[in-house]
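Sharing in case it's useful to others searching the archive later.

Someone asked me privately for the predicted structure of Glycoside hydrolase family 42, so I'm posting the question and my answer publicly. Question first, with the sequence:
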Amino acid sequence: MKRHLLGAALTPLVLLATACSEQDSPATNTQPVSKETAAPVAAVAISPLEQEARVKMDKLAGMMDEARSKGIDVAREETIMWFSEQFLKFANWDEANPKAIEMAFGYERYYADDKERLAAELPDFERTKVIEILDKGIGELGKELAGEIKRRPVNKVDWQNTKAADNMFISNGKPIFPYDYFSKTVGQPLTNKDIYNDHLGALYHGGEHLYEVDHDRAINSFLIKEDGTWDEDLLKNLTDIPDTNIGFLVYWIMGIPEWVEALEPEVRSGRSLFTGFDVDNPTARDLWSRIIRHTGELTKGKKVTELGFVLANEPHWYSEKGHWTYNFKEMNEISSYTLAKFQTWLDNKYQGDLATLNANWGTSFASFDKVEVEIPMDTALQGKPIWYDWMRYNMDRGTDWFTFMQNELHAVNPDADTHIKVMPRMFMYNSRSGGIDVEALAELTTMVGHDAKAFGSANIRPGKSNDWLKKYAYKWDGVGMFHDFMESVAPEKININSESHFLSSGQWRDLDTRTSYIRNVYWLATLQGMDANMGWFWARDPDGSPEDRLEGELDFFDPGLGGAYAGSNNMQPHVTNEVTQVMYDLNSFSEEIIALREQQRPLRLFYSETTAINTEDYMTKGFEFYEQFFFEGFPMGFVTQNIIEKQDNSKWDTVVVYNNPYVKDSEFAALQSFLNQGGTVIVDSEYSLSMNEYGQARTAKLVASKGKLIVMPEGSDIAAIKDVAMAEIADSMPAVAIAEDNGKPFKTTHWRSVKQADGSYLVNIFNLGHDTAKLDLSLIDGDIASMTDLMTSNPVQTSFELESEGVLLLQVVPK
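And my answer, the predicted structure tokens:
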């Protein structure tokens, strides 16, 4: 049997998508069948469903020949044919190896009790879905051959010549949105066309594919030996990457060699789940300085770095008691180096005034270098000065580490692009004990990086809220609100989702995921700012078997990885095909998408990390407010102190301060400066802005100055504040208006519009609700001459219906 040590041979994407990272108990320890014991696929007789599928493949092939003869593009059908062939092969493998598939289902607790039935049904399920995508392809191409629709030809990604521009990728002179899967099957060569092609994506993931059975796969701590020399075999995995297709590299900072620990016994104090050492440790920093500089020089100018260097995989340092990461030995203590840096930070923060620190903390330290702090910290201290000081420092500590990493890389490779796979939860969730300042990191790196997710169906973990299902077909907040924040912070930077969990995660999966959801979420994310995405995950070898990591003895620190395969897109041909189909369409309309998303954001919500640290429900309340504006036909935005101070304030009209009682004096001053320049500020109540970071009352009040200040009456609800805000930006609202009737007392239709050079309007509409929406589209200042569905080239009436999860791209021509 092959040796598969998943704890050592882990790619950078296993991460928190696994079960245990959601405080779940370990999955079953039953072992799957390895490739050595797998039954040959040839032993499986051709099923009636496969025969039916192959008849349809022959029919579609004939239609494609006819289309080619008429000059009709058939790239979409070529992808349908490719996935059909692949998944028929996969179905046969799954049928020939039922025990392996049972074990795959058994590793995911959500499916474990029903694993035998699911394994038995999977092959025909896959064949049935192949038939469905073939039927859909036959129908669509049939309409085009009959002249009923006209589709725009596919604009494929030029995987060899795509370049990173200032805020988008460019291919053959046009914007392009590269797509792929973050984890391609381990052990397959980068030149394997069954893995790297237009259908699955053809990015080279150089860092991810460094393979050494004894160490983590990626640019890691084990590149340097104890004698100070380089492990040349590991380096070859980096230097031997062919300089053809574009790609990205990953600094995988989870492990640390034992010889380093022998030199520095504290090196693991203050470690975290995906950062296996103390980032304040000077020996660790020296080690990584050498690694970053050497690998930066070796890869300088290579195509595999066109999408940048990922400085870390899902970094976090949660330091509050009771957090699930404690069981993974995250921040169980801090090192003497971290404490010393905290003491210095406090000395600077308090400007040497020890008496004020002691008064704030209720302590009697004799000097700053005698300050002590208990980590992890008791959550009962939230809102107290000691809580604020540590949590703010922990964020600054994380930012300092990534500043160090980027500086080391740029010292030898100044043009290298960088991003960090920041988890949206660091912004979207209420906790701020994780040591990640999302705004600071987006400002720091040359690209914006993250792994934004959505839930296509209910959370499969017990005790998790699914309240969003009461209104929406899928959980979109991590796409909408998170992207609007990142785009507000760094509007001129490329936005990369290096592990998109749109298809499945440890928290949700659906064996029969809706293709309408796939199209809607990928399109929405791209409109919101996503320039490239690598989905979770592709784990099939070309013969149909699960890839190496998911075979043999799954000896892995987080057993949830084994459960990631079950119910994923690796079992769903309709899902995997739809990902490519929607990316084809997005790339065919890339210029229109860029025009729609590069607009002013007239209304900005004020965001304060200070209040977020000090309160337990800041983001919950923040989303409830943001949500009310998401369906009003314009792109939302955010402002912070940094945005006000560093960006052109004329790019927005009005700032709304909602639920922000704690702000630093510098944040308060930034809001006043916006008013001084003539801006409008709406404050939800006198309570907002009333305290500094330590809960001390602020005597100063905002004054209108050259601007307009509106302080809402005490007790004003969200609806009242929204009405005032919408009135203030009335002159900046788009010329296109949509009236919606979805049978509910709330809106679910999101849209954007932009005027084009010829006087027409582009309008992109999404229905995020469960029900069909009746829509009436009009122009504020005139009548409509015609409307055209750009996806089909067919006319559309001004009153129309949009089904649940429907997406429309319209051209509206005024009279």
